Structure to design on (148 residues):
């Protein structure tokens, strides 16, 4: 049932006239919307999940740009080509109400960010060691004056 709903959702999202979208499927069990959004690659994530005692699955959209969930839709909404436009209107409404969008990154992948952070930490430790070595290797001179 979920695979059929996913295929219907993908087809309707690709058929959306506005805004233009790029669809990327994630592996099953990838986590909740907030976890998936951490990479910063997606603007919107739509999860298929069950709510409470309901027998039919529901669509759980998460706005990654605002880092907040959007309104839950029934599984029937997956076949509507206006779904993306409705989610976009909800996003724009939240922004107009004062919701802050995530800060734009430098366009770096998570691996590159980790490399920059590690490199900065190594440089800071090296600078601290250099200061300690310079202080310990400094020659000291004592002047003794004797008066008669």
């Amino acid at each position: 049932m979920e695979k059929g709903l996913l295929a219907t959702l993908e087809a309707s999202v690709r058929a959306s006239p506005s805004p233009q979208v790029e669809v990327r499927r994630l592996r099953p069990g990838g986590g909740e919307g907030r976890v998936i959004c951490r990479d910063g690659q997606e603007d919107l994530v739509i999860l298929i999940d069950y709510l409470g005692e309901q027998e039919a699955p529901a669509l759980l959209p998460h706005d990654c740009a605002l880092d907040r969930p959007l309104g839950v839709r029934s599984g029937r909404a997956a076949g509507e080509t206006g779904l993306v436009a409705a989610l976009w209107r909800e996003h724009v409404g939240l922004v107009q109400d004062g919701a802050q969008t995530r800060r734009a990154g430098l366009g770096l992948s998570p691996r590159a960010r980790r490399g920059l952070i590690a490199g900065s930490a190594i440089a800071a430790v090296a600078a601290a060691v250099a200061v300690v070595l310079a202080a310990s290797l400094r020659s000291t001179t004592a002047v003794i004056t004797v008066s008669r």
